[in-house]
Amino acid sequence: MQVKENLSNMSLDEAIDKLSKSVYLESPDIWIDLTDKINDQIFDEMVLFFATKYDVLPILKYALENKFIDLNLPSKNTTYKNIGEHLISVAIQSNNIDIHNYLKRSLGQDDDEILIEEVQIESNENNNSTSYKPEFICPSCNVNIFESGYKASEDIVYKFSLEKNKLIETSRSLLDKTVCCNCNNVIKGISINQLKNICTVQNCSRCSADLTSVGITDKSKMVYDKESNTFNSKSTSFHCANCDNQINKTQVEYFGSLI
Q: Has this prediction a pTM greater than 0.85?
């Protein structure tokens, strides 16, 4: 492959070698497809997805500066409206700051740019008592999957191309199948989007409903006092009005005087 220019301290050939090794360790099958695409100068969403995931910026620069791909085209992952948004999400999840900022600039979003590192610094400066830690307990092993991790699957469709005389990928979409990394059991009744919602402090940790929309109910525990022959309030708890799940201390503090 001919390199038009050295796009960073790492040459394009070095970048491709790095990406190739990383993808091979993840999946030899995907590695074959990725290698074929790169050899054919096909820098599509799949190639840039892995370049973003493994922090290989020169490949993205090469693809965009030579107009091999348009970030504004619809993404094969229907969760996102275009390829650019998909790749930015991957960069955030992988904490690849340089790629995140490069993609934002490529999409003309300089003015609205939020640096990942700035968000992290701001988060670290928050009071520990009000910082939100999402929680969803795996029903099989009773661990918080946001700590142990969870796996998501993709639905990839391949068809045989007579023109290229090989299988080619025709579509790719994220499945709502969640697997706990701790026990490898499928978690039923929760979707990928619901898990994303749970990461927001105003959403219920069980059903992911927006508490500002569905409401919060308060429950008072009453204890009987023999001397006065009355029931007196001992404690009050707050619950999601949608599923009756008790909201945690951080959420109570977050809503403050509202409840």
A: no
